[in-house]
Amino acid sequence: MKKETRYRLMLIASMAVFGTIGLFVRRIGVPSGELALYRAILAVLLLGGVLLVGRQRIHFAELKKELLLLFVSGAAMGINWILLFEAYKYTTVSVATLSYYFAPVIVTAVCPILFKERLGGKQILCFGMSTLGLVLIVGANGGAGSNLVGILFGLSAAVFYATVVILNKFIRNVTGLQRTFLQFLSAVVVLLPYVLMTGGFTLTSLDGVRWGYLLVVGLLHTGVTYCLYFSSLKELPGQESAILSYIDPLVAVLVSVALLGEPMTLWQVVGGSLILGFTLWNEIKSK
């Protein structure tokens, strides 16, 4: 198998696995903050093991200027997980995911301000049409469980995910795997006191099946999948990576409709298509 084909399959697999997380989160049944903490802890243990086996040392003395950025981005990642898990509780997995995938639109809107990037006609059109798609999803309340609270949680998660993406643009001296490990570690530091102050731990209430779901979310959906994702991302062209990343929301919608039996209205399908289609077009560079 060619090297590029192997990395392409790794990225496809990671995106497909990401798309199924809502199915497992729905069945664990612990508070969102607690679940986010467990996800971060399990991922830290797995990625820490990978770093040890690979003998990859983290030289903190060389990262002094970026430690604060790593900590803040890790905290934003943990908060992003909490908000996304809350969105799953109030609305369908498909609507929560499509709301969450408004994050690239937010990045497009903010980057001209932070990085002095020129916002061209194509970017303005994509921003406007993606926003229209979001309006259609919000307005399509009939019979699809599209609760406004859930959509707002999904959008809030998108804001924090966009924050992670933007902060990562400033972090240049840390490799992908080490960066992710430090961000997950920062998420643990932030989420632990939050969980202690908002109800504590409920692990004793989990049966064997739900323990299995929790391990899948922490180890597979976070640790293993992030390893596959970052390992493939640095080896593939940016445009191809952008296209393949949209496997995630498409799988999430299929899981929502086919496995969870959650309906979607025609307007939600149209709105989701506008969000995904125009954000994808925005990421594909014109020749």
Structural description of this entry:
By secondary structure, the chain is mostly helical. Helices cover 76% and strands 0% of the residues. The protein has 13 helices and no strands. The protein has helices at 3-18, 21-28, 32-53, 67-90, 93-100, 103-115, 121-139, 148-168, 176-197, 208-233, 238-244, 247-259, 266-283. Residues 142-146 have low confidence and may be disordered.
N-to-C terminal Cα separation, in Å?
29 Å
| Major beta-sheet overview | none
Task: Give the quaternary arrangement of the chains.
Answer: single chain
Radius of gyration: 19 Å
Helical coverage, percent range: over 70%
Number of helices: 13
Tell me the β content. under 5%
What is the number of E strands? 0
Show the helix and strand layout.
Elements: H1 3-18, H2 21-28, H3 32-53, H4 67-90, H5 93-100, H6 103-115, H7 121-139, H8 148-168, H9 176-197, H10 208-233, H11 238-244, H12 247-259, H13 266-283
Helix pairs in contact: 1-10, 1-12, 2-10, 3-4, 3-9, 3-10, 4-8, 4-9, 5-8, 5-12, 6-8, 7-13
